[in-house]
Task: structure prediction
Amino acid sequence: MTIDPQSPDLALGVIGTGTMGRGIAQIAAAGGVSVRLYDTRDGAAEEASAFVARMLRRAAEKGGMTEGAAESAIARLDIVDGLDAMAGAGVVVEAIVEELEAKKRLFAELETIVSDDCILASNTSSLSVTAIAADCERPERVAGWHFFNPVPLLKVVEVVDGLLTEPWVGDVLDAVARRCGHRPVRAKDSPGFLVNHAGRGLNTEGLRIVQEGIAQPRDVDDILREGGTRFRMGPFELMDTTGLDVSGVVMESIYRQFYEEPRFRPVPIARQRMAAGLYGRKTGRGFYAYEDGGKAAAPAPAIPEAAPAPVWVSPADPDGQAAVMSAIADAAEIESGASPDPGTLCIVTPTGSDATTAALDQGLPPERTVAVDTAFGLDGRRTVMTTPVTEPRWRDLAHALLAADGTPVTVIGDSPGFVAQRVVATIVNIGCDIAQQGIATPGDIDAAVELGLAYPRGPIAWGDYLGPSRVLAILEALHGFYRDPRYRPSPWLIRRAKIGVPLATVAR
Ligand SMILES: NC(=O)c1ccc[n+]([C@@H]2O[C@H](COP(=O)([O-])OP(=O)(O)OC[C@H]3O[C@@H](n4cnc5c(N)ncnc54)[C@H](O)[C@@H]3O)[C@@H](O)[C@H]2O)c1
Result:
């Protein structure tokens, strides 16, 4: 490595000064790096420079940096009028149009200008870094440097090694990113890199649940946001925010790029909604309706009136039994005994199974049985699952008892793994397979997902929170029920669950 990432003289070329280029310029200038801004559109680099200056001064006003630091950063911005000005830069990053040929042409031209050890980095979000580098004289100095929008706020960047990228290149980009206040995560070139690959599970499994008729989009979002999983946004809110015109295309593209890997298979309802133009916030209607820029309010369903009756909670899962009994203790007459008397509500707390399977396996009457998800605790929104023949009276009683202390309840149709268990198990499984393929380390997978997607935990950490054998049990139950290879557990998960070590365990 001949580039010193800490050098006060380090110069970064930014080609393409739109949304992303200007964000990268801002954090680099603030990190003490000199920035050369170039854009083919007349006036674009000037606009970007003025924008960055405004942002830096605003940051100073808000106390994020001193006025002196902001002015020094602004002084580090240089507008240049040709690629020739990139000679002498240590790193050049492109954030131009997302077209393979345009990026290849740009790098070929840059190679005639920059020094041999100058790094050529691409901010591409979906193209192969290896393909961008393919026609370069020195593909070993080309890497992905994938920032997220808005760059100054989303403080994570994927440093992506193409097939021929030399390790020092990623090391320099890693160090420059840290200098600019960002957390680099290292990934091998593969479809979706890290964040877009690891983020598949939430949307596709949410859609799968709705497609099957288990729950409505709002129910899925409410459960994942307000239940024990505490996602900041549910999958349908997220798709409405990004716009299905964007996230739907990414969903289809990643599925194809992985040769129709069933784990990433989208569902027809997404494509139909794209065809109808129901993109989300930007069109005023998506999975939700929008009024005055906000989600149209929907009244919370009333807590049903229910005739009282004793409740029997299955001891098959002692932790689940204890959690349910404690949640309803003040409202319910709880029946003890090895099996339920006639005229009692039966509650089961399965891991991975649906209510029907759990009821029949335990010899309980499916008409009087409901299941409650206790995998993530019962402090937040509670999920009650019915069998196809659960009588409304017992469903309503379960709902009323679980809501009696003011905690919201969502009732869903029969589903192996409820909503939260199957969504989280899917996310863990995809994360494990990213580790298995050596695309990134468990630590970087989690950091990418926590910082890039704002999940409360990364996939590996989620798996270790639930316990690898529990996640394996959920996936095996899903796999056994649907006979769909989408749910086949990753070898990474199977082996660590069998040995009994955390999912963060890396082979020696
Ligand atoms: N916008 C995002 O959310 C986002 C996130 C991550 C990565 N990306 C990627 O970053 C890149 C840029 O995206 P953006 O949203 O900033 O686009 P943008 O349209 O806002 O900006 C692109 C800029 O590049 C300029 N340009 C186009 N061709 C050029 C060339 N050959 N040489 C110099 N300048 C050229 C355009 O004039 C424009 O100013 C794309 O590869 C995109 O996939 C975008």
Observations:
- DSSP finds 20 helices and 16 strands in the chain.
- The pocket of nicotinamide-adenine-dinucleotide is lined by residues 15-21, 39-41, 44, 95-98, 102, 106, 123-125, 148-149 (CB under 6 Å).
